C-alpha cells in the first residue's frame, strides 16, 4: 500500500468512526459516509471490502483510543490502589472523553451490533474481556505484593467493577444525566477502599 493510500484509509477511518459509533451500523448510510469524507462511494470501497469491514475498522479505531487511555491510567502510581483510583478518576470524565467518538464505543456498538452484526458484536465482547483482564492484572499484582486484600478472585472483582462502570455509562447516556456516572464512580471509590484496603 502506498503512503497516499495509507493516508486515505486512515482519513476515512478517523472520519467515519464517530458516525458509525453514534448512528450504528444499520443507521449509518453510504451517503452519510460520502458526505462526511468528501469522497465518492467508489473511493471509500476502494479502501475497504464492504460496509462491514469499514464499520469494524471504525470500531477498532475507537477501541484503540480507549484501550490506550486505560493503559495510561493503569500505569499511574506505584501501588494497585493508586492505579485503580486513577482508572476510576478517568471514568468520572468518561462522557467528556468519549464525546469526540460519538459516545462510548462499547455501549453504542455493543448494543447496536446485537442481532445484526456478529463480527462487531464479537469485537466488543473481546474488548470488554481485555479491559476486565487489565483490571484483574492490577488486582492480582497488588494482592501478590500484599498491597491489597482481595475478598474474591481478581477477575471476579474486575468484572463486577467494570459492570458497575459500564452500567453507570449506560444510565448517564440514556438519561443524559452525568450524575449517574459521577455518583456511581464515587461509590466505587468508596467500595474499593472498603473492600481492598489492608
From TrEMBL:
Q: Which domain of life is it from?
A: Bacteria
Task: Give all residue intervals belonging to the HTH tetR-type domain.
Answer: 6-66
Keywords annotated in UniProt = DNA-binding, Transcription, Transcription regulation
Kindly give the PROSITE patterns that the UniProt entry links to this protein. HTH_TETR_2 (PS50977)
The organism of origin for this protein: [Muricauda] lutisoli
The answer to whether UniProt assigns keyword Transcription regulation to this entry is yes
State one Pfam family annotation.
Answer: TetR_N
Q: Which ranges does the entry annotate as DNA-binding region?
A: 29-48
The name of this protein is TetR/AcrR family transcriptional regulator
Amino acid at each position: 500500500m502506498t503512503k497516499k493510500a495509507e493516508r486515505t484509509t486512515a482519513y476515512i477511518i478517523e472520519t467515519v468512526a464517530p458516525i458509525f459509533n453514534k448512528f450504528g451500523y444499520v443507521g449509518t448510510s453510504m451517503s452519510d459516509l460520502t458526505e462526511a469524507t468528501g469522497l465518492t462511494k467508489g473511493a471509500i470501497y476502494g479502501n475497504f471490502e464492504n460496509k462491514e469491514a469499514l464499520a469494524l475498522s471504525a470500531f477498532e479505531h475507537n477501541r484503540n483510543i480507549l484501550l490506550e487511555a486505560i493503559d495510561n491510567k493503569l500505569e499511574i502510581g506505584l501501588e494497585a490502589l493508586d492505579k485503580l483510583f486513577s482508572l476510576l478518576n478517568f471514568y468520572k470524565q468518561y462522557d467528556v472523553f468519549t464525546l469526540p467518538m460519538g459516545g462510548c464505543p462499547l455501549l453504542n456498538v455493543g448494543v447496536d451490533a446485537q442481532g445484526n452484526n456478529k463480527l462487531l458484536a464479537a469485537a466488543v465482547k473481546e474488548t470488554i474481556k481485555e479491559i476486565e483482564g487489565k483490571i484483574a492484572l492490577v488486582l492480582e499484582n497488588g494482592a501478590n505484593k500484599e498491597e491489597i486484600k482481595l475478598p474474591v478472585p481478581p477477575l471476579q472483582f474486575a468484572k463486577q467493577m467494570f459492570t458497575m462502570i459500564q452500567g453507570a455509562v449506560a444510565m448517564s447516556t440514556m438519561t443524559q444525566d452525568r450524575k449517574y456516572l459521577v455518583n456511581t464512580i464515587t461509590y466505587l471509590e468508596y467500595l474499593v477502599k472498603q473492600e481492598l484496603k489492608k
